[in-house]
Design brief:
Blueprint (H helix, E strand, L loop, with lengths): L3 E5 L6 E5 L1 E4 L2 E4 L4 H6 L8 E7 L5 E7 L7 E7 L1 E8 L10 E7 L5 E4 L3 E7 L4 E7 L8 E3 L20 H4 L4 H4 L3
Antiparallel strand pairs: 1-2, 2-10, 3-4, 5-12, 6-11, 6-13, 7-10, 7-12, 8-9, 8-11
Length: about 180
């Protein structure tokens, strides 16, 4: 039986989830989601929506996105093709890790997932061409509650592994953090 290993990230409430693999001559099998294993860690994550994204070019940056009240969402993010540098950014003013970030490589090969708590920003950079990601959310997408901060905001100093090659106009134009506080 496969299980998931939950590793602390240094961001309060955020977890790196590493599945254990069962491998044999057929290939591999692993658990991609288990509400019981999340509940064992006190995480009440009930997915309501699943999203996928494909980035054609290596170096593409998407983020840093989050939803605010009345629709704050937690996310469970995985890479299903290629590889990506995935980042969680703590935007909760009352959190002991407020304004800190954590990043790790997620890939189709390692099968790792990043659990992003509510009110934390999320973004990623593709490390290969044709990288695909898949994530579950605890809320439905609500355009009125959707916000972001810039991926290159000097307030956070996120160290992306590559120069950004493709960034949407929306992601380039999110306000700097001091203007986004209180959202």
């Amino acid at each position: 039986m496969t299980r998931m290993d939950f590793a602390e990230t240094g961001i309060s409430g955020a977890w790196l989830v590493k599945p254990s693999f069962h491998q044999d001559q057929r290939g591999r099998f692993y658990r991609a989601w288990c509400s019981l294993e999340f509940e064992e860690r006190g995480l009440k994550f009930a997915p309501l929506q699943a999203n996928m994204g494909l980035s054609v070019h290596k170096g593409t940056v998407r983020g840093m996105h989050f939803q605010v009240k009345p629709s704050p969402e937690a996310k469970l993010v995985r890479c299903t093709r290629g590889s990506m540098f995935d980042v969680v950014l703590d935007l909760r003013p009352d959190s002991p890790t407020f304004a800190r970030w954590y990043g790790t490589e997620l890939s189709a090969d390692n099968g790792w997932m990043l659990y992003v708590p509510e009110q934390c920003g999320h973004g990623y950079q593709t490390l290969e061409n044709d990288t695909e990601m898949f994530y579950l959310t605890s809320q439905f997408y609500n355009p009125a509650a959707a916000y972001g901060v810039r991926f290159d905001d000097p307030a956070f100093q996120i160290r992306w592994p590559l120069a950004a090659t493709v960034v949407s106009d929306q992601d380039r134009n999110w306000p700097l953090f001091h203007k986004a506080e209180g959202k």
